[in-house]
Design brief:
single chain; 161 residues; alpha+beta; Alpha-D-Glucose-1,6-Bisphosphate, Chain A, domain 4; eight-stranded antiparallel sheet; 4 helices; 8 strands; 24% helix; Activator of Hsp90 ATPase homolog 1-like protein; START-like_dom_sf; ASHA1/2-like_C
Amino acid sequence: MPVTDIHKDIDNLTLTITADFAAPVERIWQIYSDPRQLEKVWGPPEYPATFVDHDLSPGGRTTYFMTSPEGERYPGYWQISAVDEPRSFAFSDGFADQEFHPDPDLPVSTNVYSFTENGSGTRATYVSTYDSAEALGKVVDMGIIEGTSSALAQIDALVAA
């Protein structure tokens, strides 16, 4: 399991997940920049993702949906705010309706994903910041920690292939 640390900080409204991968930074970046590769690792294995649009550039937008085992679709979006290829990118991540309009009833997070060499590959740090402790608590209750951990575990198999 590549996840090495999970830190929920209610005072700073952040959830930070750290993972180590046996691949260079450039290889991990490729996963996030290529929607077909990203589909293989975004979301837990039982909720595979389909990326409809993917513009990983400042001001760009990404839309996707995850599909449940019962066939239900759960749409989401990213609004990209900054990119430092291949080291990091920042974006807002939110839930959406079926037409990819933001769902105002569900939390939006501001995220910074960063990738650094760690000697044997890449250390990835995923920091998500929420508007309130309630919003952070809601996504934790929805299973974000377990879902993200199982999603990140898929990266090892992808880079080994």
